[in-house]
Amino acid sequence: MTRAARCALLLALAAPLAAAAAGCGDTLDARHRLEAASARHRVAFVPQPAPLAAGRHFSLDLVVCPQGDASLPLALRVDADMPAHRHGMNYRPTVRALGDGRYRVDGLLLHMPGRWRFVFDLSADGRLERLTREVDVE
Ligand SMILES: [Cu+2]
Asked: Going from the N-terminus, what domains does the chain have, and what CATH number goes with each?
């Protein structure tokens, strides 16, 4: 094999790896994209409107990316709480599956400034997983 052919082969092998490593939710607005991860899944999400602000209703555009041999979740539940204050939201968000691991979450409101934690409970491959992401909200 010539050197050029070897290079072409390496590039062909590397391309799918690069695509897989490119990230989760690349279609989401990178300026406001947040992520949460477990060993088996990654979640990327963007608040609408962004950025997050206390006392304002918002939604999330969200993408779930299975890692390795994991599958897309059969069910996804989204919530938010303030661990330091031991309280959650006063609202229960609704999650709508849009297909291909994309979701729209409506009906969120973080009612005070401070550190909040998004909680994503998903069930896939017969297991429950919890992914979390903390954010400071003004
Ligand atoms: Cu609080």
From this structure: 24-137 (2.60.40.3340)
